[in-house]
User: Fold these one by one.
Assistant:
Number 1:
Amino acid sequence: MKNIAHTLIRRGLNRVFPGGEGTSHPETDRVAAPPPVLVSGAVETPLVLASPHSGCFYPEAFVQNSRQPLHRLRSGEDSYVEELAAGAHALGPVLLSATFPRAFCDVNRAAWDLDPRMFDGPVPSFVKATHRGLSGLGSIPRIVADNRPIYHTRIPFMEAALRIRDYWMPYHATLAETLRLTHARHGICLLLDLHSMPDAPEAGSPDFVLGDGHGTSCDSRFVTTAEDTLTNLGYKTTRNNPYAGGYITRHYGRPREGLHALQIEIRRGLYMDEATRTKNQGFEPLQHTLTTLTAQLLQSLSRRTMT
């Protein structure tokens, strides 16, 4: 698979760090930080499970320097999603999960999608903000829930570049290599990018939202399989409303090349109390649901490879 985008990101990093990798990260140097991404299993099946937003390691300096208390910084966290996928992982798919939170670095945004207004000086020309970035929800978010600002003051651009280098790049390098190996071994690959969401009244508060970039990132047969499976289990689903998929789905989903990416948003109330972030009685049944969903998609992938 081509990684032209990642090559361009590395070129940007080389401009910021012309002396190489010697610059250290002040927010994590004094803390025994976990690796930025955990990988469990091998590419035994053509399906890959990933949880980019369930990380809960908040560097102490980041929390101390934030205007918001920890519980507000955690408002966008997809708590326990990697645990919800445990049964699905046991069926054979490899499981990737980020250990850092999206409030610190959001890997579901393009690396240089940053709001220039959050920095205390000029930014390099390769920074290209989308409407998401300009709204404060770029790869280094400026805000959390309810448009609450994260930082007391503008931050140095170097801090953003360090997070891209030390968190964004390792996650995507690992994901890209896992997808490449999976596709090479099986001739096809389906990425399930797992997320959680609050109630979405504008969409009628579905239990699951299946995002395929409006038909661009995944073969419709796999989306239909997922939709039918969840509906038959009694869940309310929607496609692409209000979430059609972020950077990960759109960047890695290339159906014509045999690489499919489907973003799955799960309503948090199904498995936890959002106010206390504690699991509820629906946690185990939802684990079984994701296991059943994965089993059905593996069957669908098997049929596809035999045709």
Number 2:
Amino acid sequence: MDVLPRILGEVLLRQLPHPLIFENRAGGVGVPGTEAVIRAAPDGYTLGIGAMSTLAVNPALLPHLSYDPARDLVPVAQVFAGAQAVVVHPTVPARSMAELVDWLRANPGTRYASAGPATTPHLAAELLARRLGLVLEHVAYRGSGPAMADLVAGVLPMMVDSASSALPQARAGRVHLLAVTTAARLPGWPEVPTVAETVSPGFEVVGWGGLVAPAGTPTPLIEAINAAAQAGLRDPMLAGRFAELGAVPMPGTSGVFAAFVRSEMVRWGEVVRAADIRLEG
């Protein structure tokens, strides 16, 4: 959520008349940063990075959420879709998703790590478990780094992680990468199959992010910023750097992004409620 928008920002410097300043508002499952965007003047000078968590998950996860994405924000342009990866410790006797599913069915209650409750990796694992009828125990960590460290150490046998975090560990041979959660194989890792083609047809989960503006931002400004983003997202340099991180650029109109956000709100709201996911983990 930090690196990929900054890559776009490097390209946008050639498209926009003003320099870009990135400001991180960490913590609070993205609520403080989102609130800062909502409170900003709707003049096109303050934008936010809206994510799956802040736009689609938080409305179902947080009963007293201070904002309504549909009311308080305007989608400007989707920026990226990032793959998740299913990885296991080398001691797990599985070298394919089919073998992993067989092993998990023979070992109900297997513990798996995630970057935290209601994160994209956690939701991806929950959705896969529900689709396949697996009984798993979720162990939530405070971030991907500690979770991956324990996976590498063999404390836990498996996890779903962002591809940008998992790929370096797989390249180093510390974990085995069994599949990615995108609809199609990753350009940088064409030998790695997808979950959909192996054990769960139609399965797709991506972490995503895009530019949002405060409600009331004039439509001509939204369209101008979107046009600059489209030029940046079609830059071959950007596509190459995204691919290194297991992500793909997602060009499209603001209307397309808005429709996508609405569909993701419905989808992940159902998963959060069905799985009774809470921030306590």
Number 3:
Amino acid sequence: MKTLWELMSWVSEKQRFETIGDYVEFAKYYLEFIETELQAELVAKNENNYRFFQYRRDGEYNITRPVNSELFFKLAEYESIAPDFEKILTNIRDIKDDEEARGKINNFIYTTQQTIGCALDALPSSKTNTSRKVNGDLFERLMQMIIRQLGFTIDSETLSVPVPKSVEKMNYQNDIEIKVEGEIVAIGSVKTSSKDRIDKIFLDKLMYNRLTNTDTPHFAIFLHDVQRAGKEPNYKTGQTFLTGHFKAYTIGLNPLDGVYYCDLRPIMKTDDLLKEHIKSLDYLLCEDVWKFV
């Protein structure tokens, strides 16, 4: 078993996450660690399915981000899926009609990324900004690998798009570009949460398609939209999803061609407009990405 110090050192080195297998290996060690080495596991006061892990002295008694216990696998279940995960991705359409299998893929990805985020939460508070950047970069890289494993050709690059009737150009830094014969057929944005980012994704679609005179699909992938709130001992969850902003941009500007979450907020399952535009990540992997191309 790895120590917390070893896990923190590992997760701080992005070069150690070069393959899907690297992510899976780290997740297994982290899940093994939290089975016996936590100070406590706290339950959110307002949403009982969310948990916070508290580390011992070796982690300065830090408390992690909220983790959805309905999605987050324990070690045994994670290990039961891990050996076949990449093979399942390669043949993902075989489980298109298997709701249980699709759910497990969604939850496996959620667990994999949340082990990274939670390990980073053990770092000192002085490294919060660095941790946030590392977590976001590693989630982006993981989703690139997963979509590539499906069999697609993808790129991640900064595009310079000419502005008509001008010598100026607009730069677009795309997390995922799905290409067919060298041409971009879909553009994806990957973020751990939509907080402070959702507006730009809608605007990027509008401006890119207007400047290029195309109708290129734009989609967004988010891990979750929940954060820790409150103070000890009354820790709770706070929602970072801006319902009004999302609806305003969808109705008043242009809808995105797909928005996908590993951890859907409850309102995304009950509100008619949100249900129409936001789905769980398995919909992208099993169905929608194939429609984009």
